[in-house]
Write a structure and sequence with these properties.
The protein is built from no helices and 9 strands. It is an all-beta fold. The strands form 2 sheets. Strands 1, 2, 4, 5, 7 and 8 form a 6-stranded mixed sheet that branches. A 3-stranded mixed sheet has the order 6-3-9, with no helix packed on it.
Length: about 100
């Protein structure tokens, strides 16, 4: 099953955290992938650390599709917009629902 986030994340840098939905519990080892900008096929990926944090460096401005996955949780997909107009302290926070 896949969970969709309708509202895009607008950030300067692709960084953030993944937690269990509706809790502060970090998810370690979740895979975060981005594809873009726009319809480009370039894919970058990383895993969350022991605190559930992730960062993908050297991401040019543009619109990216993202997918977060971890065994035992629903995948989460949505959009990230990388822009110099985003607040400096902006970050992505994804709550992954438990499930198949």
């Amino acid at each position: 099953m896949i969970s969709y986030i309708d509202k895009p994340f607008c950030v300067r840098v692709v960084r953030g955290e993944i937690v269990v939905k509706n809790t502060p519990d970090a998810l370690v080892g979740a895979i975060v992938q981005i594809r873009g900008p726009a319809e480009a096929r370039r894919i970058s990926a990383t895993k969350t650390d022991r605190r559930g944090h992730f960062r993908i460096t050297r991401v040019p401005q543009g619109k990216y599709a993202f997918k977060a996955t971890l065994l035992g949780f629903q995948s989460v997909v949505g959009t990230i917009i990388v822009s110099n107009q985003a607040p400096k302290d902006s970050a992505i926070r994804i709550g992954m629902p438990a499930g198949v």
